[in-house]
Design goal:
By secondary structure, this protein is of the alpha/beta class. 42% of the residues lie in helices and 19% in strands. The structure holds S-adenosylmethionine (SAM). The site of S-adenosylmethionine has 23 residues, from strand 1, helix 3 and strand 3. This is Ribosomal RNA small subunit methyltransferase A. Belongs to the class I-like SAM-binding methyltransferase superfamily. rRNA adenine N(6)-methyltransferase family. RsmA subfamily. One of its GO terms (cellular component) is cytosol.
């Protein structure tokens, strides 16, 4: 059944609050499956199945699909749609409240699962951070996101859109934009264009660092005042004296007049190492 028919049959009014924009163009579903290299041994977590278009395709080509949907009205429709599918499990929950290790234990057999999803855009960043935090049990994520977010995810140091999310995602994955998707591919169309992004998740960080928590403490401090120099934002947000920050920058070989968005992963890791040697 096509999206419009399903909406009519069940009298659905898409919820703006929950970011409900349903994908109408089938070709993008196949592109997502292809990018995720879905095969019959794969176990897949789908976030926000909506009216089930992607869910059904994932169910056709993979071993098992677990789909998490917050909207209980949609869950009832989805139950109807997948009632003959033995390899689909629906969970009526907020994905941000889910314990992904529990999902793996309770629903999956493989060591790792894949994520394929047309994300609710209002919570893209926390979902991606959750993916990265659960990198031990996730092998790949292919997600539809707002185009601007996709650009942030792949942007290199030195570009305006490079920020905390870019650092976190690039540190633990190889990320690429698979395709751009115009807003008219959805119903109702969102206010922005979209992009399909693929993250090949790594278990280990791309650069060596002594401690992940301190690394992100430094990244957050550096980016918290984007218009200030690195020296000022690190000093202000890490409670350092002038002497201390000058020493840290000097030993790391980093010019304090630079801005956070010009620092590579390697340079953040150097800062982290020196900071820990001097302060902790
Ligand atoms: N997968 C469908 C498609 O491609 O047509 C729908 C995608 S729509 C962009 C996002 C979906 O995420 C909606 O169904 C929405 O109800 C659901 N959603 C919103 N917030 C959520 C949350 N916190 N947890 C789980 N699902 C959520």
């Amino acid at each position: 059944m096509k999206i419009r028919e399903i909406m009519k049959k069940y009298d659905i009014r898409p919820s703006k609050r929950l970011g409900q924009h349903f994908l109408m163009e089938e070709s993008f579903l196949y592109k997502m499956l292809k990018a995720a290299q879905i095969n019959e041994d794969d176990e897949v977590l789908e976030i926000g199945p909506g009216l089930g278009v992607l869910t059904l395709k994932l169910s056709d080509y993979s071993k098992k699909v677990v789909a998490v949907e917050k909207d209980s009205t949609l869950i009832k429709i989805l139950e109807d749609l997948v009632k003959d599918r033995k390899n689909v499990c629906l969970i009526n929950e907020d994905v941000l409240k889910l314990d992904l290790s529990r999902i793996k234990e309770d629903y999956f057999e493989n060591n790792c699962f894949k994520i394929v999803a047309n994300l609710p855009y209002y919570i893209t960043s926390p979902i991606l951070m959750k993916v990265i935090e659960n990198r031990e049990i996730i092998s790949k994520a292919v997600v539809m996101v707002q185009k601007e977010v996709a650009e942030r995810l792949v942007s290199p140091p030195g570009s305006k859109s490079y920020g905390i999310l870019s650092v976190a995602v690039q540190l633990y994955s190889d990320v690429e934009i698979v395709d751009l998707v115009k807003r008219c591919a959805f119903f109702p169309p969102p206010k922005v264009d979209s992009a399909i992004v693929k993250l090949d998740i790594r278990k280990e960080a791309k650069v060596a660092m002594p401690d992940e928590k301190t690394f992100f403490k430094i990244v957050e401090a550096a980016f918290s005042e984007r218009r200030k120099t690195l020296k000022n934002s690190l000093r202000n947000n890490l409670n350092l004296s002038n002497e201390e920050i000058e020493m840290i920058l000097k030993i790391s070989g980093i010019d304090g007049s630079r801005r956070a968005e010009t620092l590579s992963l390697q340079e953040f890791a150097s800062l982290c190492r020196v900071f820990m040697d001097l302060k902790e």
